[in-house]
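Batch queue: ligand-bound targets. Current item pairs a single chain with zinc ion. No template structures supplied; prediction is de novo from sequence plus SMILES. Inputs echoed for audit trail.
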Amino acid sequence: MDLKATIKTYFKENSDEIRNRMIVLITEMVKEKTVNVVSEKLPEHPYLKIRGEEYRVAEIVKRELDKNGIEYDEFARMEGRPNVIGKLGKNINGKRLLMPGHMDIVPAGEGWDTDPYEVVEKDGMLIGRGTLDNKGPLASIMVAAEILKKLKIDEELNGQLMIAALADEEAEDPDGIDYGIGYLMDEKLIDPTYSIIPDIGENMKSIDIAEKGRTVFKIIATGRQAHGSTPERGINAVYMMAKLVNEIEKMKFDYEVHPVLGHPSLNLGEIHGGAAPNIVPGTCMIYIDIRSVPGMTKEGVIKQLKACGDKVENGKFEFQVMSWKEPHAIEPKNEVVDVIQKYTKEILGFVPEPMGQGGGTYAKTLTLKGVLAVGWGPGDDEAFHVANEYVEIQQLVDFALLTCLCAIDLLQ
Ligand SMILES: [Zn+2]
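Prediction returned. Tokens below.
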């Protein structure tokens, strides 16, 4: 019998069991507070010994992989923050498809109607921190792997499907050290041909093929402190910065409109200056967040910002690049997009369309390393990082089926 027909029949005949299996798995994973924050914020979360504590969910993932006889690798840059990669299919010389979910979550925050770590089922939805981002989709791909194994379809694959539970997606420390996908790729611990990352929402209706770059700049204006009663003796750094801010607001980026990503953006997100009303502020600092489109370079952006500084008479500014991530975009027509569109149309009756976004996912890291990677997955995009986060159970079941079909197609 045709493998894809076997899978479809299995999902049809066992839909209740698959659904329940997923709920049990998600409920167990959501109980684990794998909260990832930057080091500076760690003291606000006394239940955490280290950032993320992804090992808590990794234990569940490994137990399930063992139970189902699925081989896996475990890689950790530091103890307590492992990455677990389940492997289906023996032919590592064939194509390799990576389906990663992340185990860390953002803090629960305020405003919940129920306990964020106790999953509640309501009107076909699962509510709880991480149900969508990203433990629900992770459970969905784990169940897909279980079924492929159970039906022995893994033995028919002419390549390898990697079901990955990864660490460190939600927060980046200023040191830039990555414990998840960046670590795995930098150390060449995995070498995927393709990747589908279920971490964008859009209810499977869009495929993320492009993401803007992200740069954070810190700009410091330096004046001279003086007593507040004799401002003429000082140089007010806040006034100086105000003039620069004015210029930055008027600044037009040098770029070409990207067909998918459109225009770059700039946000002045923080301003700090001064210590007391009776002191002329000696320094003032701003942080700006720039989302760039392909064609824009770090050097080009710095040059433009400095030109703004030059327009401020007697201005003294220091420009620091806090982080720089390149924009990326792949061709909207490719074999991964093709299979996603083909099977989503067949199973769900609509065709997901390629799109670009301003945020960054694993797709960026992978694409910049030469992997054909797209973002695509279940869930409402409004449910990310908010109180009462939710995901529709049926979408997770559908996504598991589509995962199986896409994997079979790409790896045969
Ligand atoms: Zn996420």
